[in-house]
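TL;DR need structure tokens for one chain.
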Amino acid sequence: MNTNEMKEKLKPVLKRMPAYLRLAAALYKEPALSKRRKALLTAGMAYAISPVDLVPGFIPVMGQLDDIIAALAGIKNALGGLPPEVLADYEKRFSITAEDLESDIQAAKEVAFALFGKTFKYSVKGVYTAGRAGLKIIYKLIRKKP
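>> reply
TL;DR here they are.
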């Protein structure tokens, strides 16, 4: 996946983020939502805003993608605990469907995996190349006779 494809995948996700944040705030006030689901929603949101997480925010794109995924996963979990008629009301009020949410989570995951895969690939290549160069130098030093 190239950079332009990643941008195109993330555009709809980023456009919907303000609506997702408003939805999350509204879900906290929802009496039909269990305390457990509210706690999981809180965990997702807290992870998203916390400076301490698995992928630090100062790492461009990846640092934000894991936060987006955590926040959206918390929202998805919360919505999963609502009765169908209440869920339909939230979907209508915030113009976000369960399919939108699932699609956005999937898009963010795909871009994260594409980025992480490239990072890992180039890290391994770099270590391999440096290792080979180091071994060549050691081999030359061993072969030299005093």
